[in-house]
Amino acid sequence: MTSLNYHIDQAFPYKLIDAKASILSTFRSIIKIFAVRKWNTGIFLKFYSLLGLNRDLYKLYLITSGILKIHTDNPSLSLEDTKELHQQSKAMLLRFSSTFATLEHKRLFRNKESKQIAENTLSNLYKIEFELRKRAYSEAPIISEDRNLTEFASALSLSSLEHS
Amino acid sequence: MSFQQRDVVKVEAQLPDGNSAIHPFLIISCRAASNMENYYTGVMMTGNTQEDIYSFALENNMFERPLEKSNCQLRLYILVSFNENRIRSLLSRMNKVPFAEVLDRIKNYVLLIDN
User: Fold this and answer.
1) pLDDT of A34 higher than 70
2) For testing contact with chain B, the best of A132, A156, A159 (most B CBs within 10 A)
3) Which helix (H) or strand (E) holds A53?
4) Which of B13, B61, B97 sits opposite A159 (nearest CB)?
5) Most buried of A33, A154, B15, B84 (most Cβ within 10 A)?
6) pLDDT > 90: what percent of chain B?
7) Residues of A in contact with B44 (CB under 8 A)
8) How far is A36 from chain B (nearest CA, A)?
9) Contact assignment for A134 to B53 by CB distance below 8 Å
């Protein structure tokens, strides 16, 4: 294994972000009981800022940007290492996708900054996965089962022409 | 136009043996292009879990509604244009971030200029 194979997954504060999302969602439900909308918004924003959700998201963004740069600039990994890293990158992507869905579901993307940083982080994770995929599957055999797909694609093109 | 970019639709085709078959596609063409002749361009989905460079693994949290099947993938190199009357139903809609990544991979890795 090379120095590129660090277990970055442990450094990701996913659980912390999930927990903060739940706290913010609960807090918003509680302050809704009070009628003054202007005050509620101010209190919520203050609490949002104090809790530091954007700071955690930004930390994730920086980490993923660093990993992406490493993998873009250093393609000299063995195939075996690359395949292992690719599996790790898929796990990271899956985990953050879940966090992203939680933030969206709890309507915390009303905060434009949170939304932007989370989207950029998710985009970084997709790009890391793809960088590693390109190398992990560079010499993989053609998937023979896909013949059914290409046959269907050809038939569909023909059907569309006949009915146009 | 009943369908739009990012929609996952079931499309029917007549096979050479006379039978018809239905397969899911993700629509990638933009509204302006699809409007030209009611033709959509889609990328093919598969339930086959074998991976290659052109696979894009799909998770339910990438969509507005869960897909009917789990562990689906897109085959980014199988791009097909089809008429609207071939579409049988709307399955779901992909979220913007994964869709942007799908388009990015197609543009940068499938539709690139050969050396």
Assistant:
1) no
2) A156
3) helix A53-73
4) B13
5) B84
6) 51
7) 149, 152-153
8) 33
9) yes
Secondary structure E strands in chain B: 7-14, 20-27, 39-46, 55-57, 73-83, 87-93
Give per-residue pLDDT as tens, A141-159. Answer: 767 667 788 888 888 888 7
Residues 6 or more apart whose CB falls under 8 angstroms from that of B95 comprise B6, B62, B63, B64
CA distance linking residue A142 with residue A53, whole number of Å:
44
A120: Cβ contacts below 8 Å, ≥ 6 apart: A61
Name every chain B residue with its beta carbon within 8 A of the beta carbon of A134: 53, 109
Check pLDDT > 50 for residue A44. yes
The DSSP output letter for A17 is H
Closest by alpha carbon to A64, among A36, A22, A95, A37?
A95
Do A119 and A99 form a contact (C-beta atoms < 8 A)? no
pLDDT band at A50 (very low <50, low <70, confident <90, very high): low
Inter-residue contact B41 to B29 (CB < 8 Å): yes
Nearest CB to A122 within list B12, B53, B97: B97
* Residues A88-135 pLDDT 10s: 888 888 888 888 988 888 888 888 888 999 999 999 999 999 999 988
Give the number of beta-carbon pairs within 8 Å between A and B.
93
ipTM > 0.90, yes or no? no
**What residues of A are in contact with residue B15 (Cβ under 8 Å)?**
151-152, 155
